[in-house]
Amino acid sequence: MPVPISQTDQTCDEVQLPKLTREDIMRCSFSSWYNKLRSNTFKSRVISLPDAFVDYLNADSIFLPSDGQPQPATIEELDDDETSFSDDDQTDDQASCKDFCHSIKPGRHD
Fold it and tell me: What is the Cα–Cα distance from 102 to 47, expressed in whole angstroms?
């Protein structure tokens, strides 16, 4: 049966983590570990993302690094008067995304 620990026995020490290096980050990249662990992980394929799709991701505050340098996040605040929705704006994005999504569906390999 577990024995309760009294509050006087508990300490609130900070956990000291080792300093994270660029090399540590690079070891986590897909290209660094996938070939070594291929038999133990999911089947994968690396694809190129069209610029329009990357722009779409960036517009939703998802930032992909270019040349290994992270892009700064930005916050855009709009007044209610400045907000506008248009079917025309969505049509171009949807068509571009639809083409890209169609090209990466399972069974459509280059």
Answer: 13
User: How far lies 41's CA from each of 4, 35, 37, 57, 110, in Å?
Assistant: 41, 10, 6, 26, 22
Q: Kindly report, residue by residue over 3-46, the tens digit of the pLDDT.
A: 566 555 556 678 888 999 999 999 999 999 999 999 999 988 88
Structural domain including 99 reads: 43-65+86-110
Task: Give the residue, 108 or 96, on which the prediction is more confident.
Answer: 96
Q: Tell whether 90 is covered by a domain.
A: yes
Q: Does pTM surpass 0.85? A: no
